[in-house]
Amino acid sequence: MALARLGARCAWPGRPGARAAACGHRLSCRVVEPDTKELLTAPKRFLLGASLLPRGLALVFARPKLLVLGLIPAVISGVLYLTGLVFLIDFIADLSRSVTWFADGWAEGLRDLVQILAGAGILGVAVLLGILTFTAVTLLIGDPFYERISELVEDRYGGVPGEVEVGFWRSLLRGLGDSIRLIVLSALIGIPLFVAGFLPVVGQTVVPVIGGAVGGWLLAVELTGVPFQRRGQRLRQRRAVLAKHRAQALGFGVAVFCAFLIPLGAILLMPAAIAGATLLSRQVLGQPITQIREPLTR
User: Is residue 95 in some structural domain?
Assistant: First the structure.
C-alpha cells in the first residue's frame, strides 16, 4: 500500500499504470519513478543529479573487479597529466612574466600583482582544460572498459530497449570526434575566463564559479556519450536531451568536476563517474534507475 500512496506503478508487461501494491503478480515488479522534472524544483533537481555520483560509486564498490577495470585507463592518463601539471607549476612564474610583458615598466608592487593574477588565471584555465581533456583521453583509452561498466549498470536496471550495436572502431571514431568538438568548445570558453581572471576580486570569486559550471556541463555531456551511443544518439541529440534536464545534468557534472579537483580524484572516481553518467542518461531518457526487485511473494 505504501507503493500505491507514492504513486509507483507496476512495470509488468502489458499492464502499464497498474498499481504495484495491487498488481498481484508473483514474479518481479519494479518501481517506475515519477517524473522528477515535474515534481521537483530546479535546486532539488540539481541535488538529485549530484547524488548520482555517490550512487555510481556505490555501484562500482559493490563490484571490486569493475573498480579495478575502470582504474587501469584512468591511471595511465593520470600519470601523463600529473607529469604535465608538475611541469606547468615549475614554469608558472616564467609563463606569468611572459603573458604580462606589458607590465614590465610598472611599479614593482603593481607588476607583481598582475603577474600573480596571470599565474592564477593560467593555472585555473589549465585545470579546467586538464579535467575535460583528461576525461576525453581516458574515455578513448578505456573505451572497452567503460562500455562494460555502463552495460552492467544498464542491465541492473532493466537494460536498454532497442539497443543499437556499434562496432569498436566506429564507436572509437565517434568518441574521438565528439571529444575533439567538446575540447575545442572548452578552449574557446577558457580564453575569456582567463582574461576575466585578471579582474580583482571578480577574477578570484565569480570566474571560478562560472568555470566550474561550464566544466560541469561539458563533463556531463562528455561522460554520457557511452550510454547515448548505445541508443544510437549522437552528440547533438545528447546535448538536446540534457538541455531539457539542465539542472540534473549540471548537478551531476559539477559534482564530478569538484571531485576531480581533489588530488587523485579524477583517477580514482572515473569508474564511478561512468556509472553515475549511465544513471543520469537513463533518468533523463525516462527509464527507471530503481533496481528491479527480487521475486515478490504474497
Answer: yes
3-state secondary structure of 9: strand
Q: Which domain holds residue 149?
A: 40-284
Phi-psi region for residue 288, left (φ > 0), alpha (ψ -120 to 50) or beta? beta
CA dihedral 191, 189, 42, 152 (to 10 degrees): -120
pTM for the structure as a whole: 0.74
Query: Among candidates 270, 242, 234, 257, which has minimal Cα distance to 74?
Result: 270
Does residue 159 sit within a domain? yes
Q: Is residue 292 part of a domain?
A: no
Whole-angstrom distance, CA of residue 153 vs CA of residue 162: 16
Cβ distance 247 to 38 under 8 Å? no
Residues of the chain with pLDDT under 50: 1-37, 293-298
The predicted pLDDT at position 291 comes to 66
Q: How many CB atoms neighbour CB 278 within 10 A? A: 29
**Which cell is 201 given?**
576580486
Q: What are phi and psi of 123, to 5 degrees?
A: -65, -40
Name the H helices within 108-201. 108-141, 143-156, 168-196
Q: How many structural domains comprise the chain?
A: 1
**Measured distance CA(283)–CA(29) in Å, rounded:** 18
User: Which cell numbers in the block locate residue 165?
Assistant: 550495436
- The DSSP output letter for 164 is P
Query: What pLDDT score was predicted for residue 167?
Result: 65
Q: Is residue 73 a part of any domain in this protein?
A: yes
